[in-house]
Design brief:
alpha+beta; GMP Synthetase, Chain A, domain 3; three-stranded antiparallel sheet; 3 helices; 6 strands; about 30% strand
Amino acid sequence: MIEIFFDGGKKVNAVIHGFTVKTDQPIRSGGENTAPAPFNLFLASLATCAGFYVKAFCDQRNIPADDITLSMDYEVNSVTHLIGKIVIEIHVPDDFPDKYDTALINAAAVCAVKRHLNPEIQHIITVKRK
């Protein structure tokens, strides 16, 4: 169960399995900008979920992941004003084995958060050498 409570102003917080997740709104939306907005947490959950599967892939193969990072961007559909495309880049060191690129992309794509999104959202996942 997730419990929601209000913490003044536009702050809306959630207690999930004993952890408190704080949110706020940007100043332009009447908040104090003291925490991420709920939509930004949604985006972060997508990126960190993909990151979890990338890390698990590396751990299973004893590949150090300390120098691997992910970046995520998205595009909004001009008609629906909803996310139309999500772009995730997996940044790996130059010496990361090329033979794992496709498997790494497939690992990131397994993300449970991504699988719950509208299937019409285009997902692009790539591997980039640093």
